[in-house]
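Reopening: ATP-dependent DNA helicase RecQ still failing for me.
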Amino acid sequence: MELEQTLAKYFGYTTFRPGQREVIEAILAGKDGIALLPTGMGKSLCYQLPGYILQKPVLIVSPLLSLMQDQVEQLKRIGEKRVVALNSFLSLTEKRYALHFLEQYRFIFTSPEMLLQQQVQEKLAKMELSLIVVDEAHCISQWGFDFRPDYLRIGEWFSQEKRPPVLALSATATQKVVNDIRTTLSLHAPFEFMYNVDRPTISLGRVVFADRADKAKWILQHIKETAGPGILYMSSRKRAEQYSEAFTQAGLRVAAYHAGYGAEDRQFIQQQFIDGELDWIVATNAFGMGINKSDIRQVIHETMPANVANYMQEIGRAGRDGEPALAILLYCDGDEELAKFVVTGDLPSASHVDRYQELVRQQVQPSNMLKNGELSETAFRVLAYWSQKESVEQVKARLNQLVLEKYQAVDEMLKITQTKDCIRTQLVGYFGQKLQEKPENCCENCGIHYDEINTERLKEEKKVEMIPWESRLKQLLIGF
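Support: Ran it again with your exact input. Result attached.
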């Protein structure tokens, strides 16, 4: 059967989007693959259609519970019943049931941590999979070395001789990240499809402030006066909650979102936003990966992101419906130092490395460091992983290198933030690509007609008792 006929049969589409056919044909030919396709360009179809054609289970390794649940629900909405998510949302009974009947599912979603559990691996070893997918594969490089080392461990499982094709999917990745993906997942001469990272419908705004007080005032005024839906990215959980409270007092439908909330709370907030019950999300970078909302009109960064890849991922959540959207980066002197502080805050120090080894020598569980509050859970995971792999001096050298790389990434983002040339050209060039054509509303330096993109927020009739914004502004600035 022709691919288009199969596409129409299962999904109701008559044509493929750019890259989909090429990736699917490579998979059907038994090749490993790396596909970089912008979010909203149908990455999931690249493994879903082969799942129907090959008639054997597809295993999808996904980084976030919310992303996993969203993908499961999307499949169920198109009538797919043989889909399951192996994650912490399952009760013990549900997990046992899913594992027992695992080979009967067509699509199996799981996390790197769950994939490495012995009982899961033993079950999968007895099954014949048609395909293994690593979704949001850039996380292997950006998270694995210093945030979730289990991303590195899954590569060991993938290195087995007899395995199905492996497909790594992401929206954006530099050549270094692609190399990390290829090496970590032990891919065999993978087929690679790289879509252009430019999103011409997103205008790239930038506003520079003399101090943070002016920045806070601008944010409050801008969001009160312009239309969403939108995402306001913050540097900390505390700031996200403070701004969210201020907007709520101003009568806006807003919620804060960060990793400090429970999984169910985060999923509830995300669903409210998707369903149009919230106009704005004020979030840390924990929000947005895989979110299925096409009509986001604005993405605003309250401060400079820690690296260009994160920035591109986050602004890429706007305008997926093809309509004009706006990404505004706010900057004032010193933002880069804040970014460097935040991005290295969860890395263990040299003294932590020595302390870990001391406990090992004393035959004391190193996890006591975590129980005693000596370092964060993230820092301990990183420390434990590398301490089991390398010598003390090698671990210290690796951590120093990670800090250096993160500082360099912040400096790369600062260059783009401060450039007087075309911001879009600089961004695309960072990923080793060339800008094919400048849109009319390109960037701050090329010129943007904001009135063509920003629409005024509809005034609502209902009255809301609120604290004057001047008082809220003072509260926002506490700590600076």
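The chain has two domains: 3-194, 202-339+411-476. If you still see a failure, please send the error message rather than a screenshot.
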